[in-house]
Amino acid sequence: MSTLPPRAGRRCHNAVNPLHSSVYFSPDLGKEFAELGIEDESRVYFASRGAALGAVGAGTVTATFYNFNHELVARHLPAVWSEITPAAALDARLRAADSTLRRVLGEEVIASPEMAEAAGLALRAVEACTSHARPLYAAHADLPVPDQPHLAFWHAATLLREHRGDGHLAALLSAGLDPLEALVSHTATGKGMAPRWILATRGWRRTDWDAAVERLQGRGLLDAAGELTEAGTALRAGLEESTDRMDAAPYEHLGEDGVARLTELGRGFLFTAASAGAFPADLVGKG
Predict the structure, then answer these.
(1) What is the dihedral of CA 270, 272, 276, 277, to 10 degrees?
(2) Whole-angstrom Cα distance, residue 143 to residue 140?
(3) What's the confidence (pLDDT) of residue 182?
(4) Which is higher by pLDDT, 47 or 286?
(5) Contact 48/143 with Cβ under 8 angstroms?
(6) Which of 15, 97, 119, 201 has the fewest CB atoms within 10 Å, i.e. is most exposed?
(7) Short-list 84, 72, 94, CA closest to 47
(8) How far apart are CA 140 and CA 27, in angstroms?
C-alpha cells in the first residue's frame, strides 16, 4: 500500500519531466547538431533521444518511442549513425541541455542551493527505479551522472521520465491502444499534444489520424464529435492509475516530504522556464 497522498508521484513527475523535455524544443539542440552536420529536426530528435540505446536501427526506436510512424523513423535510422556516433550525439544533447537551462532559468537559479537540493532529491528517487522491461530507462541509467547540479538534475529528470514512460507503454499495450490511438485519445483529454504538432513531428498523415478516430469511435471510446465518451474517460484515467502503480517505487523511496519538496522545486523551475518561452504556446490542446 502506498505511503504517499494520491497521485503525489504523478504530480512530482509532471513538475520535473518538462525540464528534461525542454531540450527537445530548444534551438540550442538544433545548433549543436548542425555543427556536427545534422540539420533535419526529426534526425536530431531520433539521434539525441535514441543515442543511449547505441547505434540501433529503426525497429528498436519505433518500438521504444511507441508513437512515431515507422516510415518516418526508417528515413533517419540507422543512416544517421554513419554521420554521427551515439557518444557524440549524447555529448551534443548534454551541451544543449546546459545552454538551454542556463537561458530559460538564469545563472542565479543554476547556481542556487535549490538547484543542488533538487538534484539530490531527484537522484535519490532514481535509486529505486528498476530496469526490467524498461529499455529506454535502462539505457539512460547506464550513462554517467553529470557533475554540475543543474545537469545532474536534468539527468535525473531524464531517468524519471523514461522510467514512467516505459511503464506507460506497458499500460497502453494492456489497454489495446496502438501508437496513434494512444495519441488521439490523449489529445481528446485536452492535456495531450495538439494534432498539428503530432502530424508535424510523428510522421502520421491526416488520413491516419481520422482512421484512428474511427477505430476509437467503433470501440465506444470517442463520440461522433471526437470527444471522449464516459468509457473513454474511464480508460484514460485507468491508464494513468496503472502507470502510477508501475512508477510508484522512486517516489515511495523518496518519501512524502521529499516528494512534496521536489514537486515544489520542480514547479518553481518549470514556471520560470515556461515564462522564458521554453515551450511552444500551442503545444497542448485539442485544436
Answers:
(1) 20
(2) 5
(3) 98
(4) 47
(5) no
(6) 201
(7) 84
(8) 23
- At residue 20, the pLDDT reads 94
pLDDT value of position 286: 87
Question: Has this prediction a pTM greater than 0.90?
Answer: yes
pLDDT band at 1 (very low <50, low <70, confident <90, very high): low
Residues in the chain: 287
Whether the predicted pLDDT of 136 surpasses 80:
yes
Q: Is the peptide bond before 18 cis (omega within 30 degrees of 0)?
A: no
pLDDT in tens, 27-42: 999 999 999 999 999 9
Report the 3 state secondary structure along the chain: CCCCCCCHHHHHHHHHHHHHHHHHHCHHHHHHHHCCCCCCHHHHHHHHHHHHHCCCCHHHHHHHHCCCCHHHHHCCCCHHHHCCCHHHHHHHHHHHHHHHHHHHHCHHHHCCHHHHHHHHHHHHHHCCCCCCCCHHHHHHHCCCCCCCHHHHHHHHHHHHHHHHHHHHHHHHHHHCCCHHHHHHHHHHCCCCECHHHHHHHCCCCHHHHHHHHHHHHHCCCECCCCCECHHHHHHHHHHHHHHHHHCHHHHHHHHHHHHHHHHHHHHHHHHHHHHCCCCCCCCECCC
Cell of 26: 530548444
Beta-bridge partner residues of 182: none
